[in-house]
Write a structure and sequence with these properties.
mainly alpha
C-alpha cells in the first residue's frame, strides 16, 4: 500500500482531519497531481481558515499551475491569518514567497 492509499484509508475514518488532508495534498504534489492537491488545500482552508500551514503550499501549487492572481490572493489570505494567529514564522515565510512572486 503506497502513502496515498494509506492516508486515504485514514481519511475514511477521519474525513475532516486537516493534518491528513494536508499530508494527502502534499503527496499529490509529489506525483504531479497538482489539481487534486489544489482542491484539497482549498477545501481545508475554506473549512478551517486557521490552518495556517496550508496557505503556503496552496499558493505554491497555484504558482506551479500558473495561476498567479490566485496565488497572490492566497498568500495575502495566509498572511492575514498568520498575523491574526500571531504566527510570526509563518507570516514571514508567506511574506517572502509573496514578495518573490509580486516583485
Amino acid at each position: 500500500m503506497n502513502r496515498i492509499e494509506k492516508i486515504s484509508a485514514f481519511l475514511k475514518q477521519q474525513p475532516n482531519d486537516n493534518f491528513l488532508r494536508h499530508a494527502l495534498a502534499l503527496e499529490y504534489i509529489k506525483i504531479g497531481e497538482d489539481i487534486q492537491a489544489r482542491d484539497l488545500f482549498i477545501q481545508i482552508l475554506t473549512e478551517s481558515p486557521e490552518y495556517i500551514g496550508s496557505y503556503y503550499h496552496l499558493a505554491k501549487c497555484l504558482e506551479k499551475l500558473q495561476d498567479r492572481s490566485a496565488a497572490i490572493e492566497w498568500y495575502e489570505k495566509g498572511m492575514a491569518a498568520a498575523k491574526l494567529a500571531k504566527d510570526d514564522h509563518s507570516y514571514r515565510e508567506l511574506q517572502g514567497a509573496y514578495e518573490d512572486l509580486v516583485f
